[in-house]
Amino acid sequence: MYKIKAICITKEVLSIYKISILGNACAGKTTLSQNLSKKLKVPTYSIDEELKTLKTTPFPTRQQVRHFSRELDKLMRKDSWIIEGWCPRIVYNNRFKESNIIIFLDVPLPVCMKRLHNRLLNGSLTNDIKPKVINRATDKIYTFEQHVKPVILSLMNKYWKKDQSKTTLHLTEKSNEEELIRNLKEIHA
């Protein structure tokens, strides 16, 4: 479903799948992780679901970050996984270290906003709650674009250049998700 902007894949990387899927809210992380999970037979974990009780914000306290990091580390100690979602900025480096495949869904901001509005307006929210939820989600989308995306791009660049044991995918726009899955399976075989 995404156009591959940049890719670096090595055969050694794929002895087991440890996949991080990153991207803004409404970028398609959950959909992609669920599809990859089915096709590759790998369990998927959504940070939003698994760690939702942590109530982290784009600018969390040190205590929140430490707790979040410990809980995320528990997930990453598993043999094989797909972890999707975004987290406090300072946690990304560890996520990159533990992953052997990093997929960044770099969906344009207007597309994320349109998906957000469609998702929330078609949901079961009451009219008095909708504006508050939309404002909070909109802030989250803009915060990601301004503060989190640069961190991800910097780490992608670092691992692209210095760590050939990682597969890094920078995906933009719509493309063929089946082709992505097929390529990952062929390299894994």
In short:
This is Adenylate kinase. The chain is built from seven helices and six strands.
Name some characteristics of this structure:
6 strands, globular, alpha/beta, six-stranded mixed sheet
Instruction: Report strand order across the widest sheet.
Output: 1-6-5-2-4-3
- What would you report as the Rg, rounded to the nearest angstrom? 16 Å
Q: Tell how many strands the DSSP assignment holds.
A: 6
SS content category = alpha/beta
| Largest sheet features | 6 strands, mixed
Distance between the termini: 23 Å
Protein name: Adenylate kinase
InterPro entries: Cytidylate_Kinase-2 (IPR052922), P-loop_NTPase (IPR027417)
Give a verbal description of the structure.
- The chain is an alpha/beta fold.
- Helices cover 51% and strands 16% of the residues.
- Strands 1-6-5-2-4-3 form a six-stranded mixed beta sheet, sandwiched between helices.
- The model is unreliable at 1-14 (pLDDT under 50).
- This is Adenylate kinase.
List the helices and strands and how they pair.
Layout: E1 3-8, E2 18-23, H1 29-40, E3 44-46, H2 47-50, H3 62-76, E4 81-84, H4 92-98, E5 101-105, H5 109-121, H6 130-162, E6 167-172, H7 177-188
Parallel strand pairs: 2-4, 2-5, 3-4, 5-6
Antiparallel strand pairs: 1-6
Helix pairs in contact: 5-6
